[in-house]
Amino acid sequence: MEAFLKKKPGPGVERGTVDKPTISDTEVLVEVKGAAICGTDIHIYLWDEWAANRIKPPLIVGHEMSGKVVEVGKDVNHIIVGNMVSAETHIVDQTCLQCLTGRKHVCQNMKILGVDRDGIFAEYVAIPAHNAWKNDSDLDPIIGAIQEPLGNAVQTLLPINNVEDIAGRNIAVIGMGPIGLMAVAVAKELGADKVFATAGGRNKTRMELARTMGADEVFSARELDRDAIVKAIQDSTDGNGVDVAIEMSGHPDGLVTAFEALTLGGRVSLLGLFPQPFEVDLNRLMIFKAATVYGVSGRLMYRTWFQVRGLLRRPKLREKIAKVVTHRLPIKELEQGYKLILSKKAAKVGLTPQW
Amino acid sequence: MEAFLKKKPGPGVERGTVDKPTISDTEVLVEVKGAAICGTDIHIYLWDEWAANRIKPPLIVGHEMSGKVVEVGKDVNHIIVGNMVSAETHIVDQTCLQCLTGRKHVCQNMKILGVDRDGIFAEYVAIPAHNAWKNDSDLDPIIGAIQEPLGNAVQTLLPINNVEDIAGRNIAVIGMGPIGLMAVAVAKELGADKVFATAGGRNKTRMELARTMGADEVFSARELDRDAIVKAIQDSTDGNGVDVAIEMSGHPDGLVTAFEALTLGGRVSLLGLFPQPFEVDLNRLMIFKAATVYGVSGRLMYRTWFQVRGLLRRPKLREKIAKVVTHRLPIKELEQGYKLILSKKAAKVGLTPQW
Amino acid sequence: MEAFLKKKPGPGVERGTVDKPTISDTEVLVEVKGAAICGTDIHIYLWDEWAANRIKPPLIVGHEMSGKVVEVGKDVNHIIVGNMVSAETHIVDQTCLQCLTGRKHVCQNMKILGVDRDGIFAEYVAIPAHNAWKNDSDLDPIIGAIQEPLGNAVQTLLPINNVEDIAGRNIAVIGMGPIGLMAVAVAKELGADKVFATAGGRNKTRMELARTMGADEVFSARELDRDAIVKAIQDSTDGNGVDVAIEMSGHPDGLVTAFEALTLGGRVSLLGLFPQPFEVDLNRLMIFKAATVYGVSGRLMYRTWFQVRGLLRRPKLREKIAKVVTHRLPIKELEQGYKLILSKKAAKVGLTPQW
Amino acid sequence: MEAFLKKKPGPGVERGTVDKPTISDTEVLVEVKGAAICGTDIHIYLWDEWAANRIKPPLIVGHEMSGKVVEVGKDVNHIIVGNMVSAETHIVDQTCLQCLTGRKHVCQNMKILGVDRDGIFAEYVAIPAHNAWKNDSDLDPIIGAIQEPLGNAVQTLLPINNVEDIAGRNIAVIGMGPIGLMAVAVAKELGADKVFATAGGRNKTRMELARTMGADEVFSARELDRDAIVKAIQDSTDGNGVDVAIEMSGHPDGLVTAFEALTLGGRVSLLGLFPQPFEVDLNRLMIFKAATVYGVSGRLMYRTWFQVRGLLRRPKLREKIAKVVTHRLPIKELEQGYKLILSKKAAKVGLTPQW
Hints:
Four copies of one chain form a homotetramer.
Chain A (H helix, E strand, L loop, with lengths): L1 E5 L7 E4 L9 E10 L2 H8 L2 H6 L4 E2 L3 E9 L11 E4 L2 E2 L19 E2 L11 E5 L3 E3 L6 H5 L1 H11 L13 E4 L3 H12 L5 E5 L4 H10 L3 E4 L5 H10 L6 E6 L4 H9 L1 E9 L7 E3 L1 H6 L4 E4 L7 H10 L2 H10 E6 L3 H9 L5 E5 L3
């Protein structure tokens, strides 16, 4: 079959012909119908330090996907040939402390599709049946493919506790990458009062999309400094600050904005990864503020997925999420997709199975 | 000033002229600008057993209201003359175990406006400053007056724990009285997938309003028996049943429907009051189902009020809630309001200050 | 191998020789080293209506057990021959809504050892590796065998939310069966202030054990009527009532006691099963009280098991739990164990593998 | 009356004679019967940067106290002359967002006794009735005085969510100041499995006290480097790490130890204040770990106080807490108390009312 691979260490990606995968008794084989490019794929493409340490070529890359099941292992009962599925790309051992206590998303022995084992920028992929999430049969395959990042947005807004904060609350979303954009849309869909969005400001597409998603106010870090953004948020919330702030920029300034804009005793979720450690005033940001802080990694398997399914059945949200996919390319033009993202012209890039 | 009173024990209500109330150092005086009729008012009007035991005439009746502050006690700092406020009608001691542990709504020494002390079907009312909730200045006074029942709807959907269930979840609302109607609208506003509504079926207005509120399916107990309703809900939820059911009918059949339609490990909130005790199969309904059940009384003071304020700032919800007020009468026609409700022609009846 | 079976419909149990079980690739074979008799076993022994409807003879009975792993299926990685394990006897499908959202204990397709498939009153038993819980190697096999009911006690005291109520709180445990006794010990171990225990009063052993478990006050329903018990609890809690009540009696009076003794806004967990439906005043008991009610079925798989393991490592609790096992018999005297329980002379009866 | 004051900016404290305070209608006058020295008092004594910015002399210093009510304001109903009370020293406005939503401990307009208004190193003190916490009449006044830091320990272990982690869980307490010591004792009292304590190692008294409090293992940062401590904790927890870590050292190394010793998806509470901002690897410590982090400031008013009362009724804990008070001095020797703490020879210093 056709696939895109990292054949050897170093930047770039190559197209190649490889054997169609075989499945074990507990796996399913999926014909890929829709895919999308994640930030992780960019790290692997550019071969940064993280990628060089983690990736063992040769490896089929890519992980966000949906497709049709074409074969099922003999011990698989709940999935049948013909089902449309997406992959939860975190493959877990189901036996560690975390897996046995409702925290599979941080399994001690996690393997990730397209990172630790062959991924999905291919015609077919084999995945454990436990990782195949059944989609509504009428779901657009590209939307199906981006349920993982949408799940991140949902999980960041609705961590395991204290989540009543969304309804009627004021929310700040820091960082307008694809997940930040989706988080704005989800926050409005879940009954937020005001949703404030902040963005770096270089990517005009994303600034505009933030408004389309429903942000009440959109701040550009190019036009306003951090203090001015925090002041504007305080002024729009009777001086209280937001009830919830979610950090998706991966920028130190974004972190400080999130906490400074937060009301006392409020909640911050951290999803964005920072390029390196930096100086943090924990006293002022977390302790005196009596903040609750959630580090977010992955999505709850599968509580978040059920929520995502339900939310995607709401027409308004589905339309908004579709707009986050600014470009749809045939998968043979994968490198063009990488370049669109690197040039800051795209939000999410979807891929259709034309080889 | 003019007021409607229960002057002596027995059915009915009388108009009278009484002294304008005076306020203590910690109270405020409010000129009533909007009011509404609650089910409790009907009990007092009809003088049923509960009313005969609880009410000590003479008493100004009524409790749902909003108005303008015209005088403030000398120890009141956060309310000023001219503020538009609504009353939280539960007056609490602030010193009991419940008040000191975040549960003022079940204060051990609660007094209720229009039940235990003079109410608000009057030109003016004195209330503790602690019970005066500041409204947005542009809020319709009638909508301001029905924030208490709206708060009940919110509190029933979002009790103190486990509330992530709303987002993307399937919900059943049993009983289409005014609070049930508002609960349908709120559930949709908070990101529910499907919302099922059941109604007795005699009040056509309410059946139609249930659809207007956004119910995906509306069942009439006149047309379908309980088993058929439960089956329909199961069929529409992949056989799982609903994640959350809220009981607002006060009918034994409603209770059973709520639990039978519930998924295993789901959540039920009980707000509707039942006319008398009845036989319940706790094993089947609650224990084997591993259900979480919330008895709901009042609203969280003031967490729920902040949520209601935020939700009412969302135009779509505000419009829906306005439609629950099927009639607006000058307050001098109060008895006409009672009759509209008793004749099953109204949902909520609002009252304007024309004496 | 030797085993006790229900060979045909009807009361009683018979000893027999059967084939040693074989295991699938995902199962383990366990040599039973300790067992105990559960109330469910009594229902099956007596062949009551529930048993007659559920049990399909021939069937090896019994489910509470611990033992040594003597064989593992080829796909099992986390259990090895020689491990000491107990069985979680709820065998779940791992694919339904409940299993995928942290609620395996209410799996839609649950099978129970000794009820729906062969149980453990035998020399060997085959169980899914997912159901084999590794014990500390020095754990007494009889204590290992009663971790399921101990888990019920823990799960009843610590349901999924709101559990900070135990620390420094006042607790009522209604019903002094083995799980009620264990619940008293666990509540004291988790930092409760006062623990009140109520018992039917006919079983003197259990009344005495309640004090040994650490109950501050023990009430006998033979000596005090319900109102007197509730009043005594109110008087010992500054008139507030208990913060948490857990119902383990399965008696209608126990239910009412639990709620009447409860503080406003408190929490009740229901574990005891009632012989038949009965009249309940939901308004007074649940709604006006703004109670949170948890129906409890099973134990969280495996959050509760981890907690049980940690708690059993505390010497004081382990000693108390050992005392709940009032009798230890060779398993060949199984019927004598049934009779001890039926004659109200025992709390928990443990069984050692002498055939 | 006699009192210790900061009469003018600068280090030190002076004894003086001042007017006995008068009370408003909502205050009570308390005769101080027991007091204790807090770390905050040391900052004020030494006149560090924080103190110089915050304190406006002249000011009576000190805040941890208990005493007898000798006069009550005319609007005070729940406190009477003769009651033994302690002060919650956070005086709140009761009208801000935080006060109205269960978060008085982070009131937007908080005033602190002995910091923002006259404190309690005096014969008498006037406090709002809302801040007077009634003690059991037989409580040792010195223990009564240290309920605030004990409340900090409880609040750090039991923040508003997710607190079931204590029961049967493994806990690390980083930092053996008085609150760290109390946290060890409380964690064991709440059913923890293993409790690990780490200390700087210079204060031998505190190292020994950590064992007295019930720590299973006590690590000295003088004897083991950070990696060795983390490895020891991992080794003692089957390689999982602790379920909960609480940071009370205020040292950057303590922060890193807390998160490195934490199991994936675990919980960290931060109470210790850091001398200045420092570089933090949020990706590794919080995000990839999917940690929940609670900044802790103060105690829940008054949920934590009720828990503290209940816990202090347990004899074993009360004995342990008494041992944290390593020195009891007549208050006239206050400066000797400061010196004992500064010389690292004391844990908590209690003060009795001998002037």
